[in-house]
Amino acid sequence: MDEAAKAAEQLESGGFILVYDEDGREEEVDLVMLAEKVTPKHVYTLRKDAGGLICVALHPKIWTRWGLPFLHDVFSFSSRKYDVLSRLTPDDIPYDSRSAFSLTVNHRKTYTGITDNDRALTISEIGRMGRETMEKPERDWKSALGGAFRSPGHVHLLLAAEGLLRERRGHTELTVVLAESVGLPPVMALCEMLDGETGRALSLGDARRYAEEHGFPILRGEDIADLWERKYEG
After folding, report:
1. Burial of 225 from C-beta contacts in 10 A (0-12 / 13-18 / 19+)
2. Annotated active-site positions, please?
3. Is residue 4 scored above 70 in pLDDT?
4. In terms of Cα–Cα distance, which of 26, 23, 20 is closest to 7?
5. H/E element, 131
């Protein structure tokens, strides 16, 4: 069984995989799983073993139906009233032309929103709603989203580029493309893996050792791109 097949099996069973973007970009590894499968124990693992920002990546077939904006567009519009926002323009990101960040959310049934229980509820319900959006695109999903979630919150939403890997090759696009390519809902929980000793991102070598110790598949961005191109572009 190749790594992509192992990853599909692991994701479907509610397990973690690791994804490395590519040399010359962020050169970071994210710990990744299906959002809908997230439990409080998974949130604990993400913050303990990975340590970065816990986010949810959304396929454009989902976020466009939810009407979500990119955060830089919100800031650009709001800068008409708050001039400081125009001075914070993210026009110097060293690894890309823009970021994928959108709003932050909490589920309306959470308390503070930050506990493992609260974040697991928010993430898993985002995952469930994302899956249902793919299944029933005609529903009024903007109202459904507002009924279930509030913003700001403690879970960061990331919007995959509408052109997917043709437009951008970040972890956001790579993870939703992987899910879609293997027939799973393209709503992914992910968190950057950090190194507490060096203060940097965890190296690919150390990430491979972690993956081997835990039995998690690890995929490179080019592996995911090849899988996607064979399925959708070929």
Report:
1. buried
2. 30, 55, 95, 106, 154, 192
3. yes
4. 20
5. helix 116-135
Placement of tokens 């970009």 in the chain: 25
SS3 17: strand
pTM of the model: 0.95
Alpha carbon of 162 to those of 37, 168, 228: distances in Å?
25, 9, 15
| Tokens (6 digits) for 9 | 């099996």
pLDDT band at 23 (very low <50, low <70, confident <90, very high): confident
CATH of residue 128's domain is 3.90.870.10
Give how many domains the chain has, as a whole number: 1
Average pLDDT, the chain: 94
Q: Burial of 234 by CB count in 10 Å (0-12 exposed, 13-18 middle, 19+ buried)? A: exposed
Question: Range with the lowest mean pLDDT among 28-32, 149-153, 163-167, 210-214?
Answer: 163-167
pLDDT of residue 97: 67
The residues, any chain, with a CB within 8 Å of residue 87's CB and separated by 6 or more, are none
Token pair for residue 117? 């229980």
CA 32 – CA 153 distance, rounded (Å): 21
Strand bridging mode 218-220 / 187-192: unpaired
Query: Averaged over 131-148, what is the pLDDT?
Result: 97
Residues 6+ apart with CB under 8 A from 73: none
Name residues whose C-beta falls within 8 Å of residue 36's C-beta, 6 or more positions apart in sequence: 124, 127, 128, 130, 131, 185, 187
- Domain hosting 121: range is 3-233
